[in-house]
Amino acid sequence: MCGIFGYVGPGDAVSIVINGLKKLEYRGYDSAGIAGVKNGQLKYAKEVGKLSVLEKEVQDQGLRFDIAIGHTRWATHGVPTKINAHPHLDTNHTLAVVHNGIIENHESLRSALKQKGVKFVSDTDTEVVAHLIASFYQGDLLEAFRQTVGLLKGAFAIAVVHKDFPDRILVTANQCPLVVGVGNNEAFIASDSHALAKHTREVFFISDAEIAVVTADKVEVFDAKHEPISKELMTLAYEAESIEKGSYAHFTLKEIHEQPQAIRNAMGSRFVEEYGSVTFEELKFDINDLIGVQRILILGCGSSYHAGLLGSYMLEDLARIPTQVEIASEFRYRNPIVKSGTLIIAISQSGETADTIAAVKEVRAKGTKVLAICNVQGSTLTRESDGCIFLRAGPEIGVCSTKGFTTQVVVLALLTVLLARMRHMSKQEGQDFLHHLQKLPDQVQQVLNNSAQFEKLAKKYANYDSAFFIGRRYMFPTSLEGALKLKEISYINSSGYAAGEMKHGPIALLNPKCPVFALCANKTTFSKLESNLREVKSRGSPLVAIAEEGLNHLGGIPDDIIRVPETIDELEPILVTVATQLLAYYIANERGADIDQPRNLAKSVTVE
Ligand code: F6R
């Protein structure tokens, strides 16, 4: 949450930083700002609203900098106003600070500074950082920054520029992502490596408590004990084009359409068809660790939690390993019981979700190994886990998870095959399962080819204020995901429910103004679901069924039917999810919603 971008080098710092912030806007978009140094003077601009407002202001003012740092905000402390927007400055405007995360002890630091006569102008936790550095500064910026960082508690990534040092940006991070990009006589800082792809592929991440002094030709890094350290550069794998919208109206739509290829990539080179099994070349787990697994505990938030639920069904059904799934934000405070023989799987598209990372730290402190399933190379989760399987979905920029979710389910399906084959799944069963997986990208494409039907249905269902998604077995987590997508991008109050639960309460809400989307693609329980459909219909709710092509018993119950290709129950959630994504997208579009950047949300939830 919140995006930081900074530039040191001979290029046009203002436009490089503004363009860098555009790539990070999905992390927060309630206000934005930029500060930099020119001719020994510190200047800045801040605006409420989207980055485009700041961009115009910067142009109107004709701002020019030699170095610059910028910020796009997702408000935590203080409402989104110009004053609360970053950068924050000290009283004499000698330095500027941008910050991502939360400084937990800002109240006590603020009181101490106030007692010394410092006047605060904003409600933010960040402003204390600017005043602290100024209070320690006696000509040595690094020393003043060190003393300041030593006082801070919480999760943060911070960047500072000072008028006396027009050639450098100082940065630090603690439990928050901050990446340094090294170019040819230029350097960049960013909250997310995607934002650097246009400029450089050579990057390194700032680890907890490290401080770096970033200049155009050299980056010096110091550890928590202030000792100089050398950091190994890693090379980013993706192309700059992958973070452009291209001809699509929204990143979300582009990413929905990228799913056939993303799923192909998630599976590519991982099949061992000869043995009906799977291999993950990047997974550094000892084979005995996997053979000895007696229980699995999956952790995640939001869509990643929903993917985890689907994974748990597959792992129990096919690998026969008891599997529990927990919402990371709840789990982390429960002093969890983790028995030996338990494999922890942490799922996160971004690898930066604060609650998931905290839950991982908690279980690792208890001596348990953690396997991460993640999309972003070098992200905090990948560094905090014992092994990682990558989604290979490519950058996901739209705030709502689409290809991130479906590739998570694919990776969980592959992991299920691996663990099941180590147990009692036969070679033939393994091969059959892989065969169904192989057909998925084309089947997803078939759903996408049907976009016109979704657009048409969206017109019919866009004006309701509430909706239900219902399903059984594999369609239950799928209903949770479908409802989440609709609510977050269209703001329709939608709930996902296990179809059998409807009559235990929620059915009271059904009426002609509340449509129900019934996910009918689970063969083993369809006959049970059929009665639920009748119950819905007799309460007058408009009913849309999403059903497999071969399912012919819908007998005129639904008002509308969306068909998806037929596959095995375990994989049908992927096809149905693509259908619910398209439905949510077109309904949101019909309602004129800001699909890539829904209100109050941000990608990468790096605060609790
Ligand atoms: C929903 C969505 C969120 C994320 C959640 C976890 O569309 O995007 O619910 O799934 O914030 O994010 P990651 O997977 O990055 O940990």
Task: Please describe the topology of this protein.
Blueprint: E1 3-8, H1 13-24, E2 31-38, E3 41-48, H2 51-61, E4 67-73, E5 88-89, E6 95-103, H3 106-115, H4 127-136, H5 141-151, E7 154-162, E8 169-174, E9 179-182, E10 187-190, E11 202-205, E12 211-214, E13 219-222, E14 228-229, E15 234-235, H6 251-257, H7 259-267, E16 271-272, E17 277-278, H8 287-291, E18 295-300, H9 302-319, E19 323-327, H10 328-331, E20 342-348, H11 354-365, E21 370-374, H12 380-384, E22 387-390, H13 403-421, H14 427-449, H15 451-461, E23 466-471, H16 475-490, E24 493-498, E25 516-519, H17 526-538, E26 543-548, E27 560-564, H18 572-590
Parallel strand pairs: 18-19, 18-20, 20-21, 21-22, 23-24, 23-25, 25-26, 26-27
Antiparallel strand pairs: 1-4, 1-10, 2-3, 2-4, 5-6, 6-7, 7-8, 8-12, 9-10, 9-11, 11-15, 12-13, 13-14, 16-17
Helix pairs in contact: 4-5, 7-13, 7-14, 9-13, 9-16, 13-14, 14-18, 15-18, 16-18
Reported by name, the CATH topology of the largest domain is Glutamine Phosphoribosylpyrophosphate, subunit 1, domain 1
Kindly provide the radius of gyration, computed on alpha-carbon positions and rounded to a whole number of angstroms: 25 Å
Structural class, judged by helices and strands?
alpha/beta
- Average pLDDT, to the nearest integer? 93
Range of helix content: 25-40%
Question: What's the number of extended β-strand segments?
Answer: 27
